[in-house]
């Protein structure tokens, strides 16, 4: 199973919701806190082409933010990404 990475900010409610969703699915992930590191924030923007959090990746596949995660779970794309 590919590694799940989630770029977050500690005060972000959508980040918390995304982490709760992944936790409820029994999935482990690497959380990358970007609120205190410009370098990590820049890395996130480079990878995702977005400046908002959360940004979720499954391996090299960019899932997107929280709303994108929910849609990907509902339409089966998230499960497909996990299978690769």
TrEMBL record:
<dbReference type="InterPro" id="IPR002109">
    <property type="entry name" value="Glutaredoxin"/>
</dbReference>
<feature type="domain" description="Glutaredoxin">
    <location>
        <begin position="4"/>
        <end position="63"/>
    </location>
</feature>
<dbReference type="GO" id="GO:0005737">
    <property type="term" value="C:cytoplasm"/>
</dbReference>
<protein>
    <recommendedName>
        <fullName>Glutaredoxin</fullName>
    </recommendedName>
</protein>
<keyword id="KW-0813">Transport</keyword>
<dbReference type="GO" id="GO:0045454">
    <property type="term" value="P:cell redox homeostasis"/>
</dbReference>
<comment type="similarity">
    <text>Belongs to the glutaredoxin family.</text>
</comment>
<dbReference type="InterPro" id="IPR011900">
    <property type="entry name" value="GRX_bact"/>
</dbReference>
<keyword id="KW-0676">Redox-active center</keyword>
<keyword id="KW-0963">Cytoplasm</keyword>
<dbReference type="InterPro" id="IPR011767">
    <property type="entry name" value="GLR_AS"/>
</dbReference>
<keyword id="KW-0249">Electron transport</keyword>
<dbReference type="GO" id="GO:0034599">
    <property type="term" value="P:cellular response to oxidative stress"/>
</dbReference>
<dbReference type="Pfam" id="PF00462">
    <property type="entry name" value="Glutaredoxin"/>
</dbReference>
<comment type="function">
    <text>Has a glutathione-disulfide oxidoreductase activity in the presence of NADPH and glutathione reductase. Reduces low molecular weight disulfides and proteins.</text>
</comment>
<dbReference type="InterPro" id="IPR036249">
    <property type="entry name" value="Thioredoxin-like_sf"/>
</dbReference>
<dbReference type="InterPro" id="IPR014025">
    <property type="entry name" value="Glutaredoxin_subgr"/>
</dbReference>
<dbReference type="GO" id="GO:0015038">
    <property type="term" value="F:glutathione disulfide oxidoreductase activity"/>
</dbReference>
<keyword id="KW-1015">Disulfide bond</keyword>
